[in-house]
């Protein structure tokens, strides 16, 4: 990762020049020389509420060989009010950006180091099939991430996943069973590697990253916006299903801030959670119609929570009734299998002894957390019969 204090932060696409791109790339790619940059312009497959995503190609040489890199610069103007979220103050916005910058600058390096340890062991012939795969894992490669407190602009320079064949689901379509299988595998990697990092370092991640991403970050730093979003979401559900007065009355009893705070304060074992796993933050690669690989993007809300909080958010925000009701057990079992595989054979406690049946029970309990996440998004993920059936099943469990 490049050193932020030696690399200026671009204020716009006009600042993305060959000399700047060379500074960004040379830490990870020593010997690179960038001779030309072709800025493609804005690409925003998602909502584009927070940032401008600027695509560009960089051409040059490295060690005497011609090279071409397809990249994106994620630029955020931190003075732009987040009116869509009910936020208009700079401190709330800078926290979001700080979370993602710190995730890519610090957390990713730790997770990659943990994964690299496994690869080294595997190369020596001391590992078995339980080791995580030799891959770039579940996030895009990031070359540079930094905030500029003076200009109030934030930047992340990452690989362009779109040119590698990744895309988000069009029109916010729900994930299929197979797409969910891939996505929970990525979440299992995040959870498993973060847990191993905590076990091996002997330091709780809540303390390790206390001054960066886990203090005043994530949902709890936006309690005003999410309280507003939940209340408005329940109103939208009531308007969509006026006959469901009892269900709406039950939902009105919950306070979003308390639900999120209770998850953070839970005495259960915790791991790093993405917390924002909905369709616009999941990029999938296909071979024909078959999903083959997934990457999770937008890491502004990373939190230290029980693992089933991520899973509840994913199911409530990304699946319809068929996947939720008919394939949930198989998907949770796949997550559990991938989690154990990521943990590897050397771990003997913590998540390694987390039984599948307990995970299923925790998932049901944390569906209230997932429901809060979905209510907040009803403005962009409208209420439909699928959601109603899912919520009614959760009600039958006694969760609401």
UniProtKB/TrEMBL annotation:
Origin: domain of life: Eukaryota
UniProt domain CHK kinase-like: residue ranges: 156-345
SMART domains (alphabetical): CHK
PANTHER family named in the record: PROTEIN KINASE-LIKE DOMAIN-CONTAINING (PTHR11012:SF30)
Protein name per its UniProtKB record: Uncharacterized protein LOC118411322
The gene coding this protein: LOC118411322
């Amino acid at each position: 990762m490049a050193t932020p204090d030696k690399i200026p932060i671009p204020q716009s696409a006009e600042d993305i020049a060959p000399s700047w791109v060379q500074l960004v790339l040379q830490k990870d790619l020593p010997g690179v020389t960038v001779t030309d940059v072709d800025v493609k312009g804005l690409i925003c497959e998602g909502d584009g509420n927070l940032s401008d995503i600027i695509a560009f190609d960089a051409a040059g040489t490295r060690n005497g060989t011609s090279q071409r890199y397809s990249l994106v610069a994620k630029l955020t103007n931190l003075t732009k009010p987040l009116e869509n979220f009910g936020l208009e103050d700079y401190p709330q916005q800078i926290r979001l950006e700080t979370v993602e910058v710190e995730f890519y600058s610090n957390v990713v390096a730790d997770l990659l180091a943990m994964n690299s340890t496994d690869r080294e062991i595997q190369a020596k012939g001391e590992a078995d099939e339980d080791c995580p795969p030799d891959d770039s894992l579940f996030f895009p490669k990031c070359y540079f991430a930094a905030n500029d407190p003076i200009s109030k602009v934030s930047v992340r320079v990452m690989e362009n996943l779109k040119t590698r064949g990744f895309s988000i689901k069009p029109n916010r379509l729900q994930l299929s069973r197979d797409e969910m299988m891939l996505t929970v595998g990525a979440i299992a990697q995040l959870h498993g590697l973060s847990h191993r990092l905590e076990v091996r370092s002997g330091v709780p991640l809540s303390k390790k990253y206390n001054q960066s991403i886990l203090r005043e970050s994530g949902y709890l730093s936006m309690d005003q916006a999410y309280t507003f979003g939940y209340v408005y979401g329940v109103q939208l559900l009531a308007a969509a299903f006026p006959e469901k007065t009892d269900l709406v009355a039950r939902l009105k009893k919950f306070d979003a801030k308390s639900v999120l705070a209770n998850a953070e304060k839970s005495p259960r074992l915790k791991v790093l959670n993405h917390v924002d796993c909905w369709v616009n933050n999941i990029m999938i690669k296909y071979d024909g119609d078959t999903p083959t690989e997934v990457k999770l993007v937008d890491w502004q809300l990373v939190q230290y929570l029980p693992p089933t909080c991520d899973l509840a958010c994913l199911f409530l925000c990304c699946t319809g009734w068929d996947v939720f009701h008919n394939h949930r057990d198989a998907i949770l079992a796949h997550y559990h299998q991938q989690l154990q595989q990521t943990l590897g054979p050397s771990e003997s406690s913590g998540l390694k002894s987390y039984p599948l049946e307990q995970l299923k029970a925790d998932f049901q309990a944390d569906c209230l957390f997932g429901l809060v996440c979905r209510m907040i998004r009803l403005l962009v993920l409208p209420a439909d019969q699928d959601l109603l059936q899912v919520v009614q099943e959760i009600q039958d469990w006694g969760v609401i």
